[in-house]
Amino acid sequence: MLKHAPFYAGFAVDDVAKARQFYSDTLGVRVIDIGESLLSIQATNGYAVLAYAKPGHVPAAHTILNFPVDDIEAAVDDLRAAGIVFEQYDSGPIKTNEKGIATPGPKQAWFKDPAGNILSVIED
Q1: Which of 2, 26, 42, 87 has CB 3.0 to 4.6 Å from 30, enough for a Cys bridge?
Q2: Full 3-state SS string of the chain
């Protein structure tokens, strides 16, 4: 039934203006306004996700977007210079170093958008 239906992902934010500024200015991602309370956040590979305003927004408890990078150390340093604060995990299955990078396994570091949604950079 849906074999040929295109699909896309979306996530909620509490403030579209703050989301637009964060994703476009802080992260440097292409953002297009497609409605009063709706953004299209676009990757260079053609993939896009919607960010929409939701009254009573509650941040996602899981990672909603992963940004593959060639060099996680450089990406974390650049993002920290732009004001990003990385999450620190020191218990449970994931443990991060002082920069917020988890190893062993795929090198990954998590941070939050202004709405509190969890994002990550992951070494590709």
Answers
A1: 42
A2: CCCCCCCCEEEEECCHHHHHHHHHHHCCCEEEEEECCEEEEECCCCCEEEEEECCCCCCCCCEEEEEEECCHHHHHHHHHHCCCCECCCCCCCCCECCCCEECCCCCEEEEECCCCCEEEEEEC
pTM beyond cutoff 0.85: yes
Report how far residue 77's alpha carbon sits from residue 91's, in angstroms, rounded to the nearest whole number: 24
Q: What tens digit of pLDDT does each residue of 68-89 get?
A: 999 999 999 999 999 999 999 9
Distance CA 62, CA 82 (A): 23
Residue type, 120: S
**Of 38, 48, 34, 32, the residue nearest 12 (C-alpha):** 38
